[in-house]
């Protein structure tokens, strides 16, 4: 049995059922222990499984996570089993790269100010616009998503520096550094962009010292995970004008409380974790699932793509 803990659109369900007509497929909007006990394959967004559910996974062989983030899953418990866990790493790269580029261009080309003057019925031609061409962007996490952002930024004449744990070369990066070189490299960048996952190594990676090392005209964007930087550290950096502006799609606490002081900062755009949203999201996810399903049914388990390293958390 294949057990979905969410209910896709009717057209997507029809496509799946035609693709594997011999399978029993159950769709629900919550985790049912009885169905979980019967399931051989579980399809989930990865936010609804608890360690307690592990007791019901008697027949489970493969968990397909229709998301890139897996930090809310019982990773330690899963690591003690032989259950294959795979996700849709990289699926967000198109919509997220477009979202990031839209925010960067909006900031550089003064679009918020232009819109404000229109609402005020003002014809104001003096704007603080500047060119993206020739800027340097430091991209934290140049994997599938970060590399796509690097590709688009390079097309605008931006110099790209990638930063990951090892400093190993990544696509569309003009230069690479490791985490331990970050503090020394930050002063060179006008744009600092993070798409890092949440792991033990990335949690609170950016400290007050890192923001003090940035240029006062830096544009900081966090589109990875909210625990990259503590909320109070981010607020302090923005209030003290240690950086010029920030755009955050993720936050330490989500949903962001309505009384959060972040909403009132004039040099911050609050994006409510929407950068990856796309009408094609599940369509792309299920394309990955169907291809991996073929490998799974043939017993070619090593051919299943995007298998997760449960110890590393990604």
UniProtKB/TrEMBL annotation:
<dbReference type="Pfam" id="PF00389">
    <property type="entry name" value="2-Hacid_dh"/>
</dbReference>
<dbReference type="InterPro" id="IPR006140">
    <property type="entry name" value="D-isomer_DH_NAD-bd"/>
</dbReference>
<comment type="similarity">
    <text>Belongs to the D-isomer specific 2-hydroxyacid dehydrogenase family.</text>
</comment>
<dbReference type="InterPro" id="IPR036291">
    <property type="entry name" value="NAD(P)-bd_dom_sf"/>
</dbReference>
<keyword id="KW-0560">Oxidoreductase</keyword>
<dbReference type="InterPro" id="IPR006139">
    <property type="entry name" value="D-isomer_2_OHA_DH_cat_dom"/>
</dbReference>
<feature type="domain" description="D-isomer specific 2-hydroxyacid dehydrogenase catalytic">
    <location>
        <begin position="26"/>
        <end position="308"/>
    </location>
</feature>
<protein>
    <submittedName>
        <fullName>NAD(P)-dependent oxidoreductase</fullName>
    </submittedName>
</protein>
<dbReference type="Pfam" id="PF02826">
    <property type="entry name" value="2-Hacid_dh_C"/>
</dbReference>
<keyword id="KW-0520">NAD</keyword>
<feature type="domain" description="D-isomer specific 2-hydroxyacid dehydrogenase NAD-binding">
    <location>
        <begin position="101"/>
        <end position="275"/>
    </location>
</feature>
